[in-house]
Amino acid sequence: ENVKIALVVKSLGNGFFDAANKGAQEAAKELGDVEVIYTGPTKATAEAQIEVVNALIAQKVNAIAISANDADALVPALKKAMERGITVISWDSGVAPEGRQMHLNPSDTNLIGETIVKLAADYLPEGGDVAILSASSTATNQNAWIEAAKKALPEKFPKINLVATVYGDDDSAKSTDEAKGLLKSYPNLKAIIAPTTVGVVAAAQVVTDENLIGKVNVTGLALPSEFKKFIDNGASQAVALWNPIDLGYSAVYLAHDLAVKKMEAKPGAKLPIGRVGEVTLDDTNSAPMAAPFTFDKTNIEEFSKIY
Amino acid sequence: MDTKAQTIETPMREHPAMPRMTLAGITKTFPGVRALHNVGLSLYPGQVTALIGENGAGKSTLVKILTGIYRPDAGTITVDGRQVSLTSAHDAFEQGITAIHQETVLFDDLSVAENIFLGHAPRTHFGTIDWRTMRSRATEVLKVMGAAHIDPDARLKDLGIANKHLVAVARAMSIDAQIVIMDEPTAALSAKEIEDLFELIELLKRDGKAILFISHKFDEIYRIAERYTVFRDGEMVGEGLLADASQNEIVKMMVGRAVDHIFPERHPQIGAPVLSVSDLSHPTEFDGISFELHKGEILGFYGLVGAGRSELMHAIFGITRTSRGTMRLDGAPVTPRSAAEAIEAGVVYVPEERGKQGVVIGMPIFKNVSLPSLKRTSKSGVLQLQEEFGLARKYTERLDLRASSLSQDVGTLSGGNQQKVVIAKWLATDPKVIILDEPTKGIDIGSKAAVHAFMAELVAQGLSVIMVSSELPEILGMSDRVVVMREGRIAAVYDNNGLDAVTLVQTAAGIAA
Amino acid sequence: MSATDTTPTPRRIPDRLDKPLRSAIFSWEALLVAVAVAIFIVNSFASPYFLDVWSLSDLTFNFTEKGLIALAMALLIISGEIDLSVAAIIALASTLMGMAAQVGVDTPGLVLIGIGVGLACGAFNGLLVTGLGLPSIVVTIGTMSLFRGIAFIILGDQAYKGYPASFAFFGQGYVWWVVSFELALFGFAAVVYWFVLHRTSFGRRIFAIGNNPVAAQFSGVRVGRIKFILFCLTGLMSGIAAVLITSRLGSTRPSIAQGYELEVITMVVLGGVSILGGAGSILGVVLAALIMGLVTFGLGLLNVPGIVMSIFIGLLLIMVIALPILWDRFGRRRLA
Amino acid sequence: MKTLLKHREIWLLAAIAALVALISVRFPGFARPGNLATVFNDTSILMILALGQMVVILTRSIDLSMASNLAFTGMVVAMINAAFPAFPIPLLMLVAIGVGLLLGALNGLLVWKLGIPSIVVSLGTLTIYRGATFLISGGAWVNADQMSPAFVGLQRLQLLGVPVLSWIAIVVIVLFFILLTRTSVGRSFYAIGVNPTASVYAGIDVGRTKFLAFCISGAVAGLCGYLWISRYVIASVEVANGYELNIIAACVIGGISIAGGIGSVAGAVLGALFLGIISTALPVINVSPFWQMAISGSAILLAVVLNARGERKQGRIILRKAEAA
Ligand SMILES: Nc1ncnc2c1ncn2[C@@H]1O[C@H](COP(=O)(O)OP(=O)(O)OP(=O)(O)O)[C@@H](O)[C@H]1O
Ligand SMILES: Nc1ncnc2c1ncn2[C@@H]1O[C@H](COP(=O)(O)OP(=O)(O)OP(=O)(O)O)[C@@H](O)[C@H]1O
Ligand SMILES: [Mg+2]
Ligand SMILES: [Mg+2]
User: What's a GO cellular component annotated to this UniProt protein (chain C) (predicted)?
Assistant: First the structure.
């Protein structure tokens, strides 16, 4: 009998999650006895994700690894899963601690927050105005990163002035409107930071369309395959991201270990994750996977072929 | 468009050898009603044929068949010797047939010009609608008809009912047709407008057009028409030259029996006033209405179409709000703010538009009957079906309703039987005053007599009846007194002894006797 | 329907011609039962996990909240109106409950607030429609943005959580064994609505209004008042649904219950309620709710993406309405 | 007729001017012609969609499936472009219009031939078309990188200083104006909305005319499918999800009566512009974007109330003559 591990994503069809699924399959092959169920709603809402979780509970999967659309709304459903003996971890976008055994952060939250600002600051030696274009206002991970970025600003980047934070809901039309609004309201804007793969593409397209290449730099978190065009055309100097393949791989690896090897997820525990290495859980039972990786003109070509 | 070419070669008025259009064996059945059975008719160029028959005889149905709105179940239509099939209004235009329909079928939110030309608007070189030409041609058509006062740019909604009717006439005239059908074109018009229309008809005759003219008014028929065809109950019962037939002969064909037997003998026992209305007014529909209705009385309300009678009755029944005035019922003031309150007070209303306002089509007979009495047939809001059936049976059987069961959808009943359901519904509420608005409109002869007999029975039992009617015989045959309304005001009140039709018509039209 | 008034009938008119069995067999509800049973059987074969009491219990969560609103919406649609703002009412009610929870209002108070807000929103819709005589579809498209918009203004990018522990019962608790509170409430409400629509004079008047509002008014039915009550009821049920869903999610965001309005209406129409008003039954709506639950859950068990399920629902909606029409047309042609 | 309709649009225009003035107080650059041209460009797609929806609403129907149709067609053209980058873009636009028209015709056929109410038909196809989008794409997105420069660039080309997207909108507006005021089909859309019975008497085939209206709304949705995808350079299943209600809202604000028969091209365009200004201006003037929804909701309600006032039957003044006499 195979171990069934469900990799639940925010929404299907997103390139980032498809890449994570690739890693998950690699982990399954490596572990041997694992069957990965890659699933998720088509609409990125908590309600739809709960229906998916309920169906997984009924299928008596061994473990659920979820990237949540809402940190709180999913807690009751995931609690129910745990009561029925299913191992639950969250990854990428987390769930409140009572709704999961552990959370795998793609990277260290503070590090990400700092990195996204740094990507902008590196190309603004004189300093200047920057704005953030986020995903939905309820996205846990984005909110944590923005929080961290704001904390890092005064100490490490005193010349950078964050003028606004707007939300594009991971919807390309809305993100486009918001990006245009930013450019209009802040004529002196030097950079848009979009820590979301949908928003960053929309912002870069707007900058391209408005002929602001060279004047406004778009940066943030982006998938190389989706974003290559904008590094090439100069709308963006550099973006960062962790490796989604490794993230999917690690999520399945950890879920397997907790479910089958009955490892215990408790503060301070060190858990191995195959080829990626090892993570140490902090006092909220969460752990970062790796430092974000930066893509620029020198390496985007190569990585765009991978994910 | 070869019909046009043929116009020129048939200008002869005196010897119309060939009929322009011939119908034979036309049959049309609606669910539960046989509207037409094997009827025939011929129209001759340069002549007016009058189609005569009682309400519901099938005249308008024939018009709709000739204009492609309905398809006959059987029969043939021949135009200029060629058999044609008319499957849409468009086919009818192509065959050179145009009609003024009985009910004005026009577009409230479009302009007058467009109402006239919709479907056959003049085009520019690019094939687009030529508004300018359309407007000028509309002006022209209206002028020819003597209706130059109508602005072609006005929105139809803003016209009065007579002017709307003139627009309908203009629409028919704007089509260069060889066959012109007029279904009661004078019903909504005043004397002057009727004169203009007749001049127009003379003009059309001289052009060699074949005209079918439907009217209930014999003076008009004798004045304008050469030939007649009579329908009774959907069958053709006679045709010929008007010169050879007297009015009495034609009436006999129409009704199938002597006319004066229709109305029941009555021995009215008039009592104290039940309903007194004083200075009732509405901002736009009626003004300063005062009258009294007595116990055991039938009070007739006569007037031309649009005189405001129905609106007044709606106000008494609580549907329309009034701006001024008072009502008393058995001496106590009442101001119904809804039909529900009027019914509670004991005033009920049998509306003019039966299908729209009278019966709830889609619901069975017994539910229709119990609808205003639900409070009594249900126990603390819970339906008691047996009570409802009992109530419905009591009153429908009393009215001799013809139905296969009480669960039959009212929509499948004939007009007369629907009317009986409406009356049964009201009798079940035990009313004091019953208002009947055009109670026999569209009802066949048998039911008509039954309704009249029943009205007589009601007042004999001490109810009071208001009867709104546009049919003179009905008004004269049934009422104890007659109120004549004109343009929203009461023009006169007459006692019905020795009252004659001419007085009523003149009062209603505002012509001094 | 061969009977017409042209055939002479005895003076005594029978209550009804005997055909209850025949009409029951060919009714819409029977069709829906057949569809539901078929889906149930297919599901049992397709997934080994389906026939499990807990699975079946979890399944009910897919439709209970929407189903509760659908019961009231059915009455509203039968009366010839529609309410597109139900999901927005949930958002607003949930947001205000969240606000109250922040200042320490306890469970009974929260429930009252949720239901009260729903009722108030329904009354607002009803007032605009019946008071000003505006078309309900447009009014509720407007209030749909307005209600959810207010929730966004209040909550912005925040979320409310930290509802009292006892509040969780409504959306997560079980009344008895596998019977959740939501399911029990839905069952209870279905019985109440069935009774109101099919067994009371109020229900009779709703049908009359839907078939012919003018004739109903002329028969002494207070059309405006009844429609107003129905808007209030729909608001009330949305408020109840807001309590349930908030309790089930344990948190509130302004985007809660997005898109529910169309699912609720789909449920009602699939249940055989005529979108033009005047016809429909509660049994049909309950069956439709069940069918939608069975389809979404069954396909979910097979890990079929939700969007594919919605194709299925969409096809079902059109086919279930088109089939009788085609059947009728085909049958008539054969007779002719 | 003319005066009343004109009033309606003039009021809306005044409301828009007031809105622009209000925004200019907080953000002086807003009323600059250049910026207004941008607002027009940004609203082009909504305008085109609203015009298509208007035709359907005029005939007393509604098309809830436009946004799903847009998503489906957009995905089709994006996939074609990704697979055959050399496929000429004008031809691709024709494909978009054709695919959209086909989906619209399907709605229309169900309404015409089976007599199913349009709200039910389009509620069904709303989910079916979006589901079909998922099926053809397998849920995968088509990204900016997979689209050819011509595909993305066409609508951004400047012609006489105005982007092609705006030109397309202008052409569509003119075409609709001609259709609705100068052709008999256009007038029959109004006619069957005002009075379906009278339309039969005037020789109009009501069912077929409704079918044509759905074909038009479908074709327009298809065209917008291409425009949308090339504008936002991403094709996914979720494209324009829920946008059907924005389209209807634009129509309602533009004074198009949901009961059919009343509405104008100018109304639809201004209604769309109003919504467009709200959504583009709020971020600019620093009003929290969270206010946007409530504002557009209130605008819809206000528009309905005002339009209902305007349409209220005046009542016959049969008494006037009597009073004068
Ligand atoms: N669409 C219809 N459905 C069912 N019955 C109809 C329909 N149209 C007409 N009828 C019935 O057919 C019969 C003939 O009606 P028609 O309108 O032709 O009478 P008419 O001779 O024009 O009467 P009037 O003088 O009152 O205008 C009536 O019994 C009427 O109720
Ligand atoms: N100028 C008009 N424009 C629109 N509708 C009219 C007009 N005149 C009359 N009507 C309609 O005709 C119906 C009857 O009107 P009203 O009560 O004024 O007349 P009435 O005396 O009852 O005449 P009748 O019932 O014979 O038509 C009403 O439904 C009214 O709305
Ligand atoms: Mg007639
Ligand atoms: Mg009348």
Answer: plasma membrane
Flag whether pLDDT at A127 surpasses 90: no
pLDDT more than 70, % of chain A: 99
- Closest chain C residue by Cα to residue A54: C58
User: Rounded to the nearest whole angstrom, what is the distance from the C-alpha of residue B309 to the centroid of ligand 2?
Assistant: 8
Q: Which domains does chain C have, with CATH numbers?
A: 52-321 (1.10.3470.10)
Query: Which of chain A's residues have a Cβ under 8 Å away from the Cβ of D227?
Result: none
pLDDT for the residue A70: 84
pLDDT given for residue A262 in this prediction: 76
Question: Three-state SS string across A88-111, please?
Answer: EEEECCCCCHHHCCEEEECCCHHH
Q: Are A285 and A106 spatial neighbours (Cβ–Cβ below 8 Å)?
A: no
The answer to whether D285 touches A186, Cβ cutoff 8 Å, is no
Indicate the residue type of B272. Answer: A
Q: Is B382 on the interface with C (CB under 8 A)?
A: yes
Please work out whether the CB of residue B29 comes within 6 Å of at least one atom of ligand 1. Answer: no
- Domain of residue D74, residue span: 2-324
Please state, in angstroms and as integers, the Cα–Cα distance from residue B323 to each residue in A44, B280, B289, B338, following that order.
Answer: 58, 8, 12, 15
CA distance D301 to chain C (A): 5
Edge to edge, the sheet with strand B21-30 lists B33-43, B21-30, B74-79, B82-84
Q: How many percent of chain B have pLDDT more than 70?
A: 93
Tell me the pLDDT tens digit for each residue of B322-357.
888 999 999 899 999 999 999 999 999 999 888 888
Tokens linked to C92:
């607003």
The whole-angstrom separation of Cα B450 and Cα A112 is 91
D318 and B284 within 8 Å at the Cβ level: the answer is: yes
- For the cut 60, the answer to whether the pLDDT of residue C27 exceeds it is yes
Closest C-alpha among D179, D183, D176 to residue B129: D183
Which of chain D's residues have a Cβ under 8 Å away from the Cβ of C137? Answer: 62, 258
Structural tokens at position A68: 């949540």
Determine the straight-line distance between the first and last CA of chain D, rounded to whole angstroms: 28
What is each CA distance from D229 to A271, D44, D63, D141, D224, in whole angstroms?
44, 14, 21, 11, 8
Q: How many whole angstroms separate alpha carbon D60 and alpha carbon D270?
A: 21
* Test site for ligand 1: of B26, B28, B29, B30, most ligand atoms within 8 A of the Cβ: B30
Q: What is the pLDDT of residues C48-73, one digit of tens each?
A: 888 888 888 888 888 999 999 999 99
User: Is the CB–ligand 2 distance for residue B308 below 6 Å?
Assistant: yes
Q: Ligand 1: does its nearest atom lie under 6 Å from the Cβ of B69?
A: no
**pLDDT (tens digit, 9 = 90+) per residue, C290-313?**
998 888 888 888 888 777 877 888
ipTM of the complex: 0.85
Chains B and A touch, using 3 or more CB pairs below 8 Å = no
| Per-residue pLDDT band at B7 (split at 50, 70, 90) | very low
**Rounded Cα distance, B381 and D130, in Å:** 46
What is the tally of structural domains in chain D? Answer: 1
- Predicted model pTM: 0.88
Q: Is B47 in the pocket of ligand 2 (CB under 6 A)?
A: no
Q: What's the Cα-to-Cα distance from D308 to each of D8, D57, D297, D311, rounded to whole Å? A: 11, 16, 17, 5
Atom of ligand 1 nearest to the CA of B57: 21
CB contacts, 8 Å: C141 with chain D:
245, 248-249, 252, 300
Which residues of chain D make contact with B89, given a CB cutoff of 8 A?
200-204
Q: What is the CATH number of the domain that holds D197?
A: 1.10.3470
Per-residue pLDDT at A120: 87
> Residue B354 has what DSSP assignment?
I
User: What is the amino acid identity at position B447?
Assistant: S
Higher pLDDT, D159 or B364: B364
